[in-house]
Amino acid sequence: MGLMPVRDDEVAAIVTTLEMRRKPPLRPLPSSPLRLVAWGRPSAEKYRALFRRVGAPWLWFSRLVIDEAALLTTIHDPAVSIYAAVDGAGIEVGMLELDFRTSGECEISYFALIPELAGKGLGRWLMAEALSRAWIKGIERVWVHTCTLDHPSALNFYRAQGFVAISRSVETFADPRLSGHLPPDAAPQVPLLSRR
């Protein structure tokens, strides 16, 4: 047993991969004041704005640092489905991204609501929506990953929805607050050690 040092300009997280190998029993969708809207071919700017809104509290950065062409290639791929959770005023307050590019599988690539909606049962609604769209003909596995930077209840939430943890790994990456991809006050629960 030992500690592995992480540079001051990096962040480390333990990533847990979870999977579901069997379609869960059909249940009525929980009621919600939100609705899910499909985004066929969002602009990079629109996509990144929502990605930042829901992901900055958890240091989501991957879609902020890739170039626009690579981002559009992914989010415009016909095997990738993107949805925005929209409130009654038409404000986008959550996102769901399903990736069917691997035959027989669906990855829930991104799943989030703004932090202000936590604890209101809306995550169960969004997951029910996700699973109803993920388990289409030919899908044998739905999987997702979460990490220690996500909401503290994320891992237990996925397990309660029927996902089973299958692997763990350690990820280190340059702190996106230092590069300017996220503001310095994003994710205050994760100490910012270097202010270059």
General description of the model:
The protein has 196 residues and is an alpha+beta fold. It has one domain: Aminopeptidase (3-Layer(aba) Sandwich). Helices cover 22% and strands 30% of the residues. It has helices at 44-55, 62-65, 68-75, 122-134, 154-160, and strands at residues 10-20, 35-39, 80-86, 92-99, 105-113, 141-147, 164-174. It has a seven-stranded mixed β-sheet, sandwiched between helices. The protein is globular and about 50 Å long.
SSE topology sketch:
Layout: E1 10-20, E2 35-39, H1 44-55, H2 62-65, H3 68-75, E3 80-86, E4 92-99, E5 105-113, H4 122-134, E6 141-147, H5 154-160, E7 164-174
Parallel strand pairs: 5-6
Antiparallel strand pairs: 1-6, 1-7, 2-3, 3-4, 4-5
Question: What's this, in brief?
Answer:
The protein has five helices and seven strands, in the order ββαααβββαβαβ. With 196 residues, it is an alpha+beta fold.
By secondary-structure content and strand pairing, the structural class works out as: alpha+beta
How many domains in all? Answer: 1
CATH superfamily: Gcn5-related N-acetyltransferase (GNAT)
Number of helices: 5
CATH architecture: 3-Layer(aba) Sandwich
